[in-house]
Amino acid sequence: METGIDKLIQSVKEELQISYAFSDTCCIYKVPERLRELNEKAYTPRLVSIGPIHHCNDKLKAMEDHKRMYLQEFIARSGVSVEGFIEYIKENETRLRNCYAETIAFSSEYFIKMILMDAAFVIMLLLKWTYTDFRGSRDSIFYPPYKSIDVRVDICLLENQLPFFILDELSRLSTIIGNSPKATLIELTHWFFSCEWGPWAVWENLGSIEISEVKHLVDFLTIYHRPTEQQPIEELEVLTAPSVKDLHQAGVKFVLSSRKNLLDIKFDRNKGRLEIPRLKLDGRTEIIIRNMQAFEQCHGLKHGYVGDYICLMGLFLGASKDVEILVENRIVDNCLPSNEEVVQLFYNLNKQNSVWSGTFLFKGLIKDLNAFCERPWNKWKANLKQNYFNTPWAVLSVAGAVILLILTVIQSVCSILQVV
User: Fold this and answer.
1) Backbone phi, then psi, for 293, in 5-degree steps?
2) 164: which residues sit within 8 A by CB, 6+ positions away?
3) Which strand ranges, in their side-by-side order, compose the sheet holding 253-256?
4) Which end of the chain is more exposed for a tag (fewer CB within 10 A), N or C?
5) Helix, coil or strand: residue 101
6) Paired sense of beta strands 273-276 and 253-256, if any
7) Beta strands 266-268 and 273-276: pairing type?
8) How many CA atoms within 13 Å lie on the side-chain side of 78?
9) Helices 217-224 & 285-299 angle (0-180, nearest 10)
10) Cα(7)–Cα(9) distance, integer angstroms
């Protein structure tokens, strides 16, 4: 007869057999509350759930029928039986579960069904986004009432992710991507991002992306913006930099960079040229930046490039005038209602932002900028040019003042000679 202690022992043993997500493959997280409370909407899907974290949200249940429609089409086009897909997911169930930081309470049967439906949905969405002949006339994502705006944002949220490997393996198993059209999952993902996020999808870096290193769609976005050059190792005493207005007054010239990678900000100390890649800001920009920032913090990446960029832009853009200067130089493409909203955007993003001075990506840059601004000659020259040489009348005024000064000196010297 089993005693109470025997039941307790058996219960503990069963608990220990559960594979909790403290594995090396863990990469999908619930956003920490300290970030979530800053902007709840930036991390919460509005229309569709992908993966287990928001699967039980009643507000998102309406899209389940849409997922079934996409799954039917996925299977019909792939030539692979449902059993084949289910068997593969079953074989990789532990690996899939270990990708999530939260313990998933779903049964094996329910979990496998959810993964299959959600993966088919994402794959078909990427195909339909690029190739219009994949779209059906009943598809409300691409036809009235046009749910595409919310869907394309929802699948870029950190809590709304599937491991990229399952998307890749199921698409390979189905051959739906390899047969028609002949495009890789990497290319389809890029085309989706470039259509939706424009400057955030850097085509030049596409060739360097290995499909095996992509953890999920949010990670895909961060990989785009890895710096092309390693920064020198040096100490940084104070993490501060002049604002754009201060740099302008010190004589720094702002130039739109030909580079697309947002992190490729370069300063030529000799010419006083600061080259910055174009930054487009609209109503959805904050969502994308926040989810990349959250992934970076949760995953404990060695270098927080997104956080470093947020910090730098916060230092640069402290007032509306700073934004105005970058807009005038075509560096900032501002689709927000005002320049003040850009300032507020980076101010808010810098709350709970994680930055370490020892690994700060732009420490060499701000060190050079601070040194440039501290030189009196640079400030004097810039002030003379900006305040006295900016109009023909100002030039004549300065010239007249110089001539008057020279005549005054000559007159003084003559007076002294006469006395002598």
Assistant:
1) -60, -45
2) 211, 214, 215, 216, 217, 219, 220
3) 253-256, 273-276, 266-268
4) N
5) coil
6) parallel
7) antiparallel
8) 24
9) 100
10) 5
Cα separation of 384 and 100, whole Å? 59
What digits encode the pLDDT tens for the residues 56-94?
A: 999 999 999 999 999 999 999 888 899 999 999 999 999
Q: In angstroms, rounded to a whole number, what is the distance separating the alpha carbons of residues 51 and 314? A: 34
CA 244/CA 50 separation, integer angstroms: 41
Helix (H) or strand (E) holding 327: helix 320-328
- Burial class of residue 303 (count of CB atoms within 10 Å of its CB; 0-12, 13-18, 19+): middle
Distance between the two ends of the chain, CA-based, in angstroms?
129
pTM of the entire structure? 0.85
Confidence at residue 412, expressed as pLDDT on a 0 to 100 scale: 59
Q: Which amino acid is at 388?
A: Y
Q: List, in sequence order, the alpha helices (H) in 205-316.
A: 217-224, 244-249, 285-299, 305-316
Please tell me the predicted confidence (pLDDT) of residue 255. Answer: 97
**Peptide bond just before 145 cis, omega within 30 deg:** yes
On the 0-12 / 13-18 / 19+ scale of CB atoms within 10 A, 17 is: exposed
DSSP code of 331? S
| Lowest-confidence region among 137-146, 279-288, 379-388 | 379-388
Cα dist. 100→22, 104, 207, 215, 218 in Å? 9, 8, 28, 11, 14
Give residue 101's Cα distance to chain centre.
21
Could you tell me if 218 and 156 are in contact, meaning their C-beta atoms sit under 8 angstroms apart?
A: yes
User: How many whole angstroms separate alpha carbon 304 and alpha carbon 290?
Assistant: 13
CB of 288 closer than 8 Å to CB of 221: yes
Listed in order, strand segments (DSSP E) in 231-359 are 253-256, 266-268, 273-276, 279-281, 332-334
Residue with tokens 């832009």: 313
pLDDT tens digits along 4-27: 788 888 878 766 765 554 577 899
Single-letter residue type at 117:
M
Tokens for 145? 């009432």
> What is Dmax (Cα atoms) for the chain?
129
Rounded to whole angstroms, the Cα distance separating 304 from 354 reads 8
Which residue reads 């976005």 in tokens? 221
CA pseudo-torsion sign 324, 43, 126, 151: negative
For 133, other C-beta atoms within 10 Å of its C-beta total: 8
